[in-house]
Amino acid sequence: MVPEEATGAFVPAWDRARYHLEGVGSLYVHVPFCRSKCAYCDFASGATRADDPLPAAYARAIARQLREVEETGLFEPCRTGYLGGGTPSLLGAALPPLVRAVAPHAPTELSFEANPDSLSPDLLERVREAGATRVSIGVQSTSASELVALGRIHGPERALEALREAVTSGLRVSCDLMCAIPRQTGASWERSLRNVLASGVSHVSVYPLAIEEGTAFWRRYGEEEPEFNASDVQADRMEAAEATLTRSGLRRYEVASYAVPGQECLHNVSYWTGTPYLGFGTSAASMLTREGYLALRGVAPQLPAPGDDVARARVTVMSTARQIVADPALGSLRLSVEFLDLRQAVAEDLMLSARLAAGIPGGLLGLAREAAPASQVDAVVSRACDEGLATLEGGRLVPTHSGWLMGNELYGELWGLAEGTIDTRTC
Ligand code: SF4
User: Fold this and answer.
1) ω into 86 cis (within 30 of 0)
2) Where does the Radical SAM core domain lie (predicted)?
């Protein structure tokens, strides 16, 4: 369940009940198909031919898995859904039935990701009718030469047209932009920000390019930090984005996420506020309480029994798309499981919560002081404040400007409160 406060001032309440929720607050479906592979992308996705029957069969297999979980009661508190990828819009006619299968479990918000080249007014209308409330469009840049450098297959005109079509469709619209990329200048970044704002979107996510191992960019640039991606360039671009987006009435509510107040992505907020979720499809991850995990074991008996000290389980689907289509039964999936004790789960939640501009609520800090020695928690809080990464405001630990830009240092401090190794199994 998405905390109600999350829709207002983003001050989610924390309580012990979150660690014992028997169901999930949100559900995610991973769609691993793309028209071609972008040069920087390390997501679980692959280029798919237009006439390949696999995507439609995959969508049907996931809908079947949803029905299987319905019987467990895990979906009862579920409020938000998200179809991500890959490129969910590439499913075309197979997308509306999949959205229809998710919609009963996402009464508050149901998002899907799209790329400009596979989105049309007709698809937007059919997906909206099926129950989607929000679309997130991968634009990345509105400079033709930057898009070519990224290996994107759409041009700037089509990207901006897709944004306008989405806004007209009545869905809430978000778009992704990427900074610190080849050929980008301060001026071209500013133009990309202004162009997407002019289209009427109410949400923008801004990411610095990460050069990940195994990608074409890694082979090209992995040896040394290229100038366009230097950490000071990243910081400059992120600061410029904040200034421009804030001037246009959007508010930064998370490290990389800006929204017109009231248009925040509640699904993503539920991740950052430690709400359990279920993930479907290849490489999708779930996060469950001990109680939720035991309920999932009812339909996936290959999952190992949790030890007595397990408070949280993270489950990842290891089966490929083809394996899921060949046998969608949850009991046949190959899975990997990570078991966390309460102290590790709370440390993880501290780290995730520090991504929010509103910071870590006092209630969660209080739970941390019970799960780990209070003196250690207090020492981490003091260090974060002394290093200028965070400040205490009314009992909350709120990231400062430096804490926002150097998030990994702050998250590292908080994750340091976890003790021991995480118990990992495959089944
Ligand atoms: S469209 Fe998105 S998921 Fe697909 S290859 Fe490009 S970046 Fe990766």
Assistant:
1) yes
2) 19-251
Q: How far apart are CA 122 and CA 265, in angstroms?
A: 24
DSSP H helix total and E strand total for the chain: 16, 17
CA 197 to chain centre: 22
Residues 123 and 95 sit within 8 Å (Cβ to Cβ):
yes
**Segments making up each domain of the chain, as ranges:** 4-16+28-53+85-270, 356-415
229: part of which helix (H) or strand (E)?
A: none
SS3 134: strand
Tens-digit pLDDT profile for residues 245-295 = 999 999 999 999 999 999 999 999 999 999 999 999 999 999 999 999 999
C-beta of 63 in contact with ligand 1 (< 6 A):
no
**Residue 285 CA: distances (Å) to CA of 38, 81, 331:** 23, 14, 16
What's the fold here for domain 4-16+28-53+85-270? Answer: TIM Barrel (3.20.20)
Beta bridge partners of 179: 208
Q: From atom 2 of ligand 1, which residue's Cα is the shortest distance away? A: 86
DSSP codes of every residue in 74-90:
TTTT--EEEEEES-GGG
Angle at 146 between CA 143 and CA 150, to 5 degrees: 135
Per-residue DSSP letters for 135-178?
EEEEEE-S-HHHHHHHT-SS-HHHHHHHHHHHHHTTSEEEEEEE
What residues form DSSP beta bridges with 109?
A: 80
pTM, rounded to two decimals: 0.95
Of 31, 87, 115, the residue with max ligand 1 atoms within 8 A of its CB, to mutate for a pocket test, comes to 87
